[in-house]
Sequence to fold (204 residues):
Amino acid sequence: MVFYKGCCCRRDKLLFKKTVIRGMALAILLAAQAAPVGAEIVDECIQQANPGRAIAACTKLLKDKTQSRAQLSALYQLRGVAHDNNGKFNRAIADYNRAIRLKPDDEGHYNRGEAYFKQQQYKKAIKDFTRAIRFNRKMAKAYYNRGTSYFHLRRFRRAIKDFSRTIRLDPQYAPAYRNRAVAYRSTGKNRKAASDYRKYLSLQ
Fold:
């Protein structure tokens, strides 16, 4: 039985895309306001297939002083995601910090929590995932990633609680069953571990 140690598996990445939809919508509004720049550069900032191009485009848009605080926050988040995808976690965190100062929300804290997680700064990650949950009590992946962080700190009972919350919000999310199974086994609850692992296998 293998514990999934990472913050994002395939479906997590799909869920993550949903967390930036609002930010993307705000950025798209720039197309109408930033006529000298044009819609193409907005699209470049939003796309994440090429992080280098996204960073360059978002940086150019951030120079426009007419943007609202919400729009600037969205742009910093998008550039932070691009830095994250590029493996530049400190730069990503710096941009998430700017985004949160401008407009605190679940997305900014979740994204910064992911970056801290990838740096193995689990206590900081837990704080940000907790803040994200305060903004959005139905953010299943924030519970999941907070549970994974607790597991890395060997706080198995807290991890189990968060994996259980993830499952209540998303009963078909297989990694939560797998990780809860390993956490149960770590606390000597082998029957529950076996049951969760069977459920995990049934969802594959």
